[in-house]
Amino acid sequence: MASLATPAAPCLLRPTRCGPAGMPTTSDVALETVMTAGPWDQPALLPVRSRRERGADPATGRVSGATDTIDALGVADAAIPPAARIVRRAARRSYDVADLAMGAADVLRSNDIGTMVTAAPALYPHMWSWDAAFISIGLAHLGVERAGQEIRTLLAAQWADGMIPHIVYGDRGGYFPGPGRWGTAELSASAPQAPLTSGICQPPVHAIAVGRILDVARRGTDADRAAGEQLVRDSWAALYRWHAWLAQYRDPDGTGLIAVVHGWESGMDNSPRWDGPYSAVIPGPDLPSYVRLDRELVRDGAERPTDLEYDRYLWLIEEMRRASYDPVKVYETCSFLVADVFVSAIFAVASDVLADLGDEFGAPAEHVADLRRWAARSRAAVAASRSPETGLARDYDRRAGAWIDVETLAGFAPLICGGLDADAERALIETLHGPHWAGHPDLVAKVPPTVSPDSVGFKSREYWRGPQWPVVSWLFGWAHARHGHTAQAEALRAETLSLVGDGAFSEYYEPVTGEALGSRRQSWTAAVILDWCTAR
User: Fold this and answer.
1) What integer pLDDT is reported at residue 94 of this predicted model?
2) What are the distances in angstroms from CA 470 to CA 131, 505, 525?
3) Which residues belong to any copy of the Mannosylglycerate hydrolase MGH1-like glycoside hydrolase domain (predicted)?
């Protein structure tokens, strides 16, 4: 197993205890009391003073037995009344930046199996496409070469036609659907024989990741800079082919809105955005039987999609199998075909980033021009999708021929890619950070939930139907900074660090109580937290 480099001194920031909105706290004694409140309330990350007293490894920040307590938090939480959890999380509004940085680094090291960092140690034991992109950003702070390896591992699984698959399977099992259910290597001439992959894609955040790695590399040593620049040279052509695949096969009519053929491709698997399109997916009587593994690993079924949803997910795979994963046939025949405004916004801004890198590194001028054209087209389409009533961007159900007027976090897609006039952009930012969304008075941290608590469809514990996702906060924070909204970017950073301050690095969080949900020690959560802790 390959190990990650020990963080350089700049990664371990001077211990800074912060409270709400990033303001320093004044009582170390109070923090110590909160962080060691009782046997069920023992976090894996301890204050600096306690960590030294307990003999932590200075290279990893890990205290003996700490990793077990992180995974035990979920079991402990289930035994605590909701009211007590609210009090508990309110007390934990203090956090230590140095602790978070070292804890995040420890998660990435622990989940590293050599050529890839698994998405999570139990629930997601392989490589996921957009997870890997965010993970590589965190890895850059531990070693630029290792970050580059993550991107190269993913690109080694790119299909011959240009698609980057949403799962690259490692040697481990323990996940359903596995490669046998997809059958891509047997059914598609474009799919690689090794490594085995799924047959769909995920949001194209990869150019953003490569650009961010280069930023980190250029603040490091000469060797870091060289490694970051070599990564751009090595990956640019593959990323261009990936963007070209999306433009050709997921927007064949040139509308600017990139379509998805499965909710999983959006990254927001069971978002309310998909309820209407999924209702038209009718599983056939010949749907092969299956056994879900996620329910065995996440004990609270309310945190995961339902069995009916899973039937529909798997029936879409069957449809794609019967089309032999031919992208033209899949687009024409798949029961689910939605122009995804959030994926389109990511595609637009990632195309801009990739074009900028292409200009700097001497990529073919015609390819750079393609990227600029695709970016402009998608940016305009995202802006034009906005509802005249709410101002939020909307998906378009291509099968039903109708806009999807469901209000979710994806409605703020124009803030990712730009394209609005100054007044409209300002209004949308105010809505995102206002009292119906991130600034809702019931939230423990001012972090955008996936569905507003004021919505009738808000489900505080159910995956993409209400919880807060640190990785999505990072993406909005990055976009805010890119478009000059530095105050809002810093606010998201401070509030998300507060949310994740318990050290569980969970997949997502209950927004009213701040309870850690989903899988613990999630690599992309750790990665974006490490980036926010170490690169200012």
Assistant:
1) 67
2) 12, 9, 6
3) 124-525
392-414 mean pLDDT = 98
Q: Where are the domains of the chain?
A: 100-534
For 167: left if phi > 0, alpha if psi spans -120 to 50, otherwise beta; the answer is beta
CA distance 183 to 193: 10
How much is the CA Rg of the chain, to the nearest whole Å?
Answer: 22
The tokens describing 212, both together, are: 């961010």
8 A C-beta contact, residue 175 and residue 293: yes
Neighbours of 160 (CB within 10 A): 11
Query: To the nearest 5 percent, what fractions of the chain are helix, strand and coil?
Result: 50, 5, 45
Catalytic residues: 269, 507
Residue type, 35: M
CA 367/CA 241 separation, integer angstroms = 10
Which residues have a Cβ under 8 Å from the Cβ of 32 and sit 6 or more positions away? 47, 49, 50
pLDDT of residue 302: 60
Say how many CA atoms lie within 13 Å of 184 toward its Cβ. Answer: 31
Is the pTM higher than 0.90? The answer reads no
Look over the chain and give the mean of its residue pLDDT values, rounded to a whole number.
84
CA 518/CA 522 separation, integer angstroms: 9
